[in-house]
Amino acid sequence: MTQQVIHPMVKLQRNVQSLVESKIIKPTDSIWKIALLYGNDWQHWKQELLDFGFSMQDPISELLAVEAWDEE
Q: Does the pLDDT of residue 69 top 90, yes or no?
């Protein structure tokens, strides 16, 4: 049996989805609002998001809409 490794962005996406479901943030909020919740880890996640083509003004719903995190 092989174990599948979850892409780090999938973990971030799941955490953000949980925050939306808990009504802590809204899908229409800008991605930069996540920074308030990630504190010291934010610089890493911000760079990851920028590398995938997101801007900090994009709505959180765009992050949640990604179906596959392929790195090419």
A: no
Question: Nearest Cα to 28, choosing from 71, 65, 67, 69?
Answer: 65
Q: How far apart are CA 50 and CA 57, in angstroms?
A: 11
pLDDT in tens, 3-61: 677 889 999 999 999 999 999 999 999 999 998 888 889 999 999 999 999 999 999 99
Domains of the chain, residue spans: 15-64
